[in-house]
């Protein structure tokens, strides 16, 4: 659908359907070297100088096209949908300031790398709440937050020996919001060697920014390893892995753990870890109710970082819309020594392969904010600490659970239930602090000669859980 054509959402899906019937054609590499070879600082100096699209129309949401360059080299076509008609946004170097960069003379229309969404907040200044740029990546924030975790509309073969496949967006159609609207709908076509697809995303900014994602995939080949609802984040270190840390900051991470609400209604919490070797965890489930990477610690004192402000990074919760069937929440923890790397990836992996030539629809809702919209009606894990044990390879652990049910009227039959396998545990202690509505469980892990130990811990009273389930994989 090009200039002056009538817009039809069904046509976007049909474009992806027809695209999948053809061999994959790589995106053109037409970006001038002056932009392709930029460093991050040089790229950040490029500024869009025009009024954001629709900013003068009191529609509540405006759009800012983003320049190509640095790692954002692929071109994507941007179309506006106004009164049902399609209008392409043309590129011109006059739309940008380039800092110390000298763009080529007679620069052609090189397209854009993506777009930024802006809203008006209560004091009238624009509120930057979402960015869609690069691959099939997008990110959002709630009001008052800093960007952190990043979502993927589609993930293919992560951490496989043959290499990950990175699909890309080829075009977007952005529907002009109604006047005073608090939402914008964006349609896109994505493509890769293995599959093509259409996506419809509705963004609603606010104190919690909500993104509804509807995807239809058209596999060219049988897809055996597909990641849906993917979220990437950074975890360098925290209280559970301070070994070999030489930094003035007590913690460096955008997300502190993976929370899950499985199909049987059990709340699970898996603290993140920066391992010595790649770790892949699979949490098998049927009809999951939700999962997400959360930043639970919101205290400045926990990070002491005056520039990054990790306590302001968003938590991201994914809620399936419809029955996702059998599969697993996958967690990848990739070793890193740099905080600029997104070394954490969580996504849903369907058990059944997607057959070549099929059409696979799927929908979910994302919540970007200070906490998840769904929270356990139980005590939750507020901190996991780990350090050297009594000797050999032993490790000490302290897990803090907090909640209103752990205050002055603690159950008399409160107990902790800990399982370890392989390996053993010793010196299990239950330490209540009712004035803080907290119970600490302390123990020592003895892994023996093992190089990985899975642990599971929960608080019980009256034969029933009164806390979420703490899960942890220890590795050397």
TrEMBL record:
Task: List the protein's name.
Answer: Glucan biosynthesis protein D
- Organism's domain of life? Bacteria
Organism from which the protein derives: Microvirga arsenatis
**Which chain positions lie within coiled-coil regions?**
none
Pathway terms, separated by semicolons:
Glycan metabolism; osmoregulated periplasmic glucan (OPG) biosynthesis
Q: Which family does it belong to?
A: Belongs to the OpgD/OpgG family.
Q: List the PANTHER family.
A: GLUCANS BIOSYNTHESIS PROTEIN (PTHR30504), GLUCANS BIOSYNTHESIS PROTEIN G (PTHR30504:SF2)
Q: Where is the Glucan biosynthesis periplasmic MdoG C-terminal domain?
A: 7-474
Q: Where in the cell is it found?
A: Periplasm
Give the keywords, sorted.
Answer: Periplasm
What coarse category fits the chief subcellular location reported for this protein? periplasm
């Amino acid at each position: 659908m090009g200039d002056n054509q009538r817009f039809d959402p069904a046509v976007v899906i049909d474009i992806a359907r027809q695209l999948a019937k053809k061999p994959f054609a790589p995106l053109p590499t037409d970006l001038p070297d002056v932009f392709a070879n930029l460093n991050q600082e040089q790229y950040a100096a490029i500024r869009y100088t025009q009024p954001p699209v629709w900013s003068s129309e009191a529609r509540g949401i405006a759009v800012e096209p983003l320049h190509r360059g640095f790692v954002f080299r692929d071109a994507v076509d941007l179309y506006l949908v106004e009164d049902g008609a399609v209008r392409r946004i043309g590129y011109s170097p006059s739309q940008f300031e380039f800092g110390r960069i000298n763009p080529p003379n007679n620069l052609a229309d090189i397209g854009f790398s993506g777009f930024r969404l802006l809203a008006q907040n209560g004091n009238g200044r624009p509120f930057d709440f979402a960015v869609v740029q690069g691959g099939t990546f997008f990110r959002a924030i709630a009001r008052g937050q800093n960007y952190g975790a990043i979502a993927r509309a589609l993930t293919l073969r992560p951490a496989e020996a043959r290499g990950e496949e990175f699909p890309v967006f080829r075009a977007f159609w952005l529907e002009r919001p109604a006047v005073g609207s608090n939402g914008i709908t964006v349609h896109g076509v994505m493509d890769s060697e293995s599959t093509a697809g259409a996506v419809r995303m509705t963004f609603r900014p606010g104190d919690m920014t909500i993104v509804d994602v509807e995807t239809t995939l058209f596999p060219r080949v049988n897809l055996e390893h597909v990641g849906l609802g993917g979220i990437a984040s950074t975890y360098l270190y925290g209280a559970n892995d301070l070994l070999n840390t030489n930094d003035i900051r007590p913690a460096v991470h955008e997300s502190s753990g993976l929370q899950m609400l499985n199909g049987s209604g059990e709340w699970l919490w898996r603290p993140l870890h920066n391992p010595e070797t790649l770790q892949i965890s699979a949490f098998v489930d049927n009809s999951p109710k939700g999962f997400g990477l959360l930043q639970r610690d919101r205290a400045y004192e926990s990070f002491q970082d005056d520039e990054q402000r990790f306590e302001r990074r968003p938590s991201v919760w994914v809620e399936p819309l419809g029955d996702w069937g059998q599969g697993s929440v996958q967690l990848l923890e990739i070793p890193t020594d740099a905080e600029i790397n997104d070394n954490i990836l969580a996504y849903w992996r369907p058990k059944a392969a997607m057959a070549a030539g099929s059409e696979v629809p799927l929908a979910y809702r994302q919540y970007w904010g200070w906490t998840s919209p769904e929270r356990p009606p139980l005590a939750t894990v507020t901190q996991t600490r780990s350090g050297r044990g009594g000797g050999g390879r032993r490790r000490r652990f302290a897990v803090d659970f907090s909640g209103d049910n752990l205050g002055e009227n603690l159950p008399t039959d409160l107990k902790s239930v800990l399982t370890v396998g392989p390996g053993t545990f010793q010196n299990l202690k239950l330490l209540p602090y009712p004035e803080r509505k907290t119970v600490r469980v302390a123990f020592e892990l003895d892994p023996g000669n093992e190089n990985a130990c899975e642990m599971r811990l929960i608080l019980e009273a009256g034969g029933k859980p009164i806390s979420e389930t703490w899960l942890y994989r220890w590795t050397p």
